[in-house]
Amino acid sequence: MKKTSVVGGLIIGLGLLLTGCGNSFDYMPNLTEEESMLIAEYAAGILIKHDKNAGKLASDAEIAAADEREATRRANVEELEALLNQAENEEEASSKEEADETENGGDVPEPVTAAFEGIAQFCGLEGFHITYTGHMVCDFYPPENSEELVFAMDATPGSKLLVLQFTAENVTTQDLELNMMDQGVKFRISINDGGMDNILPTLLLDDLSSYKGVIPAGTNIPLVLVREIPEGEAGTIQTISMSLRNVSGSATTLLE
């Protein structure tokens, strides 16, 4: 007799046993819920043992690899969330400092404003050039055709995302780590000579303000800063300015 016939007969028999169907089984004892579950688990085990598809289940190595990928993903998310919380706390502290300065009649000293020579130079990042390459206005970033949509973001109703695009280049002959997380730089953006507004804290993997990664020698990567603007201003952008500030000082530059 084939294994499938044996398994089929076993399942049918156990089904009748568990349901008590038919007068011919009236003499069977009543089973407790625990006993019924044990019989059901035993039947399922027999079925899986003889199932020709059982061999297609994930191997231990595949399960371990999947667990490792998930652990790495969660670690990255936790690190980025911690950075986001840090940025929010620093912004609250900065707002309080500005309020105290106003209240005390300007007693709080301002950081020294330096001539802008470049983002990398301002941050003291040797071996890197970080240059502005343009901007885009959109409702959604990254674009839907992007390979990286894990931390995509949408503009709030009535607003657009102003995405400033940069290139970070390793100009040396050896691989270097670009770690913007440790720079503590606060970026602010102004359009059409208006007031400076903070960039959005994001979990984007290409966010210039929080990027951390190794750039191979002689290569470059694209990075961005994101700010929201009113939808009505999306088609009227004439100029874009950027200010940078850290514990060492501040600087301002006209991007376009």
What report would you give on this structure?
- The chain is built from four helices and eleven strands; from the N terminus they run H-H-H-H-E-E-E-E-E-E-E-E-E-E-E.
- A four-stranded antiparallel sheet has the order 7-6-10-11, with no helix packed on it. Strands 1-4-9 form a three-stranded antiparallel sheet. Strands 2-3 form a two-stranded antiparallel ribbon.
- Helix 1 runs antiparallel to helix 2.
- The protein is extended.
Give a brief outline of the structure:
By secondary structure, the protein is α+β, with helices and mostly antiparallel strands.
Oligomer: single chain
Query: Ends: how far apart?
Result: 82 Å
Helix content: 25-40%
SSE order, one letter for each helix or strand: HHHHEEEEEEEEEEE
Which range does the strand content fall in?
25-35%
Q: Uncertain spans, ≥5 residues at pLDDT below 50?
A: 1-12, 14-28
How many whole angstroms does the radius of gyration measure?
A: 31 Å
Overall structural class, as computed from helix and strand content, comes to alpha+beta
Report the average pLDDT across residues. 76
Shape category: extended
- Lateral arrangement of strands in the main beta sheet: 7-6-10-11
Largest β sheet strand count, sense and barrel closure:
4 strands, antiparallel
Number of helices: 4
Number of strand segments: 11
